[in-house]
Specification:
globular; about 220 residues; binds manganese (III) ion; minor pseudopilin epsh fold; about 45% helix
Length: about 220
């Protein structure tokens, strides 16, 4: 059985960027709903109950049809929200200025996007132009060449509804929820304002940890 993970901070910790009411509804109602529905669908498929969420998503094409749809919707909903909460962090009232990545992650962002600023613009443009519900991602595309050497390319992309990058063979590092329930109470239809606010509270240490972890399984989101 999957469990709703508690938020890694208090409900009001992301104020003023994300309001306390949105956090309560989003985490306690929306996220919980996906966990409950995922568990319900697994009741009918006991042989898959022991699978970790990553595996259900990676192997989604091999699942029985009814379970597959639930894993895409509710499994994705559970994983994506878990990663979304972890990718954000509270800021002190006196702290000013945007947060930015360091070390290996910063170098890779410069290499693959030109600069951190170029990355931010690209991510925001994609997120703002994404139609209807979905998610905006920073993911890694791992490739081995003929010699067996690993290259890790960062990419920004969006997915529709609750689709998760694991189902496309990508590994997600950071995600922003683009469903209206993520921002409507405070920002109404102003998604760009919500996006702009979020850059103040990105937990780049968490993103870097996922990027550098040798065993990506330990960084499972949920
Ligand atoms: Mn949501």
């Amino acid at each position: 059985m999957f469990k709703l993970p508690p938020l890694p901070y208090t409900y009001d910790a992301l104020e003023p960027y994300i309001d306390v009411e949105t956090m309560h509804v989003h985490h306690d109602k929306h996220h919980r709903g996906y966990v409950d529905k995922l568990n319900e669908s697994l009741e009918e498929h006991p042989s898959y109950r022991q699978y970790p969420l990553d595996r259900l998503l990676r192997e989604v094409d091999a699942l029985p049809a009814k379970l597959r749809i639930s894993v895409i919707r509710n499994g994705g909903g559970h994983y994506n929200h878990s990663l979304f909460w972890k990718g954000l962090c509270p800021r002190g009232k006196e702290e000013k200025g945007l947060l930015s990545p360091k070390d290996e992650l910063a170098k890779s962002i410069d290499r693959d996007f030109g600069s951190f600023e170029d990355f931010r613009v690209r991510f925001s443009d994609l997120a703002n132009s994404h139609f209807a519900s979905g998610w905006a991602w920073l993911s890694v595309d791992d490739h081995y060449d003929e010699k067996g050497d690993l290259t890790r390319k960062l990419l920004v992309h969006t997915t529709q509804d609750h689709e998760n990058p694991l189902t496309r063979g990508l590994y997600p590092l950071f995600v922003v929820d683009l469903w209206e329930h993520a921002y409507y109470l405070k920002y109404q239809n102003r998604r760009p304002e919500f996006l702009e606010a979020l850059w103040n509270i990105v937990n780049w240490d968490e993103v870097a940890m996922r990027f550098t972890a040798e065993d990506q399984q330990v960084c499972s989101a949920a």
